[in-house]
Design brief:
The chain is an alpha/beta fold. Helices cover about 35% and strands about 25% of the residues.
Length: about 350
């Protein structure tokens, strides 16, 4: 008798939705993609060509998809504004959930997903911070937690996209929550992972510019921004986000400890090929985040499937509460970016005025 396969439905077939769909269809042996939902005509047309021939049912209504016979889990890759709503509806329908980051651009709405999941402890509910599934970041985390570099004290991380001149990110900024909530959220989650779940934010401050896409200003956003987060445990995180890299995707991290440091991808490269030309030697960069983290996304799909079928702890130390904390920090950085003010928190995580600390 063949081993059981997890019956998965997927919501949203945008840029990442298509990739997630193909991962569950072709690269996750213990999962079976049985249904998708999207209200978008173009996405339905794509699904008719790439998914329906393999037995995947197509729905325009998310609620109808949730009623698909035997459905066990839902992957949410829809627009950010409906992530939380769709996650809660799925949880209440007794489905496991893998939700793309962030849960929401609102701390309170993000918390509502945690509250819903707490009422159904048998379900696996994960926010998709894909870098926790990347082999290099996992190796760095193992080395750090083993004590190799002493106590991690300084965390520097960046998410820097190749310039997209199409104007996509200008339109996207209206709903994305801003560059820190959308772009730096991965780096924020990494900082919480490497510093540990007990880390408590003391202050945040941010600054940014619109160097190449001035239309972002209408949404209070920037195409380049820097944020600094101070923790009560005597640790600091520094985040840089950019939408204007020329060579390609530049996502890198440095963790500095009291006895050494580890780095990840400080010299980005697409592969192990070096090109020797008359003008010198060069290498190519990954053109987008997907080429850099493709294998992490596939591992995420497989480990989510495994934990849904077999039970046990969520992979990579993932806790849904951590996803809320990442949004809290991202929103505070975004507010600081817009206001120019430093934001302070007490040891219980409550906003306070500086003179009360």
């Amino acid at each position: 008798m063949p081993p059981p396969r997890l019956k998965v439905g997927l919501s949203g077939l945008g840029r990442m939705g298509k990739r997630h769909a193909l991962h569950f269809l072709n690269r996750t042996p213990r999962a079976k993609l049985v249904a998708i939902s999207t209200p978008d005509d173009a996405e339905i047309d794509w699904a008719r060509e790439h998914l329906e021939p393999y037995g995947v049912a197509l729905y325009r209504s998310y609620e109808d998809m949730l009623r698909h016979d035997g459905l066990q889990a839902v992957v949410i890759v829809s627009i950010t504004s409906v992530h939380a709503k769709q996650a809660i509806v799925a949880i209440n329908a007794n489905k496991h959930v893998l939700c793309e980051k962030p849960l929401s651009t609102s701390v309170e709405v993000s918390q509502s997903v945690v509250d819903a999941a707490a009422l159904h402890p048998h379900l696996k509910v994960i926010c998709g911070f894909s870098r926790r599934f990347d082999a290099s970041y996992r190796s760095a985390h193992r080395k750090t937690t083993s004590g190799l570099i002493g106590t991690p004290s300084i965390f520097r991380s960046q998410t820097c996209d190749k310039l997209d001149p199409s104007g996509f990110f200008v339109a996207y900024a209206q709903h994305s929550g801003g560059i820190f909530v959308d772009c730096s959220i991965h780096d924020i989650d990494l900082a919480l992972w490497f510093f540990g779940p007990s880390s408590r934010v003391k202050s945040v401050v941010a600054s940014g510019i619109t160097a190449i896409q001035p239309d972002l200003r209408q949404w209070g956003n920037s195409d380049n921004a820097v944020g600094i987060v101070e923790f009560y445990e005597g640790k600091i995180a520094y985040f840089f986000a950019s939408r204007m890299m020329a060579a390609g995707q530049e996502d890198s991290t440095e963790i500095i400890g009291t006895e050494g440091k580890v780095t990840v991808n400080m010299q980005p490269r697409l592969d192990l090929v070096d090109i020797y030309e008359k003008g010198g030697v060069r290498r190519e960069f990954p053109p987008t985040y997907y080429e850099r983290f493709e294998e992490a996304f596939v591992r995420e799909a497989n480990e989510f499937t495994e934990v849904c079928l077999e039970g046990g702890e969520l992979p990579a130390g993932m806790k849904l509460e951590g996803a809320v904390e990442a949004v809290r920090i991202g929103c505070a950085l975004q507010e600081s970016l817009r206001s120019g003010e430093k934001i302070w928190f007490d040891e219980g995580g409550r906003r306070v005025e500086r003179n009360r600390l």
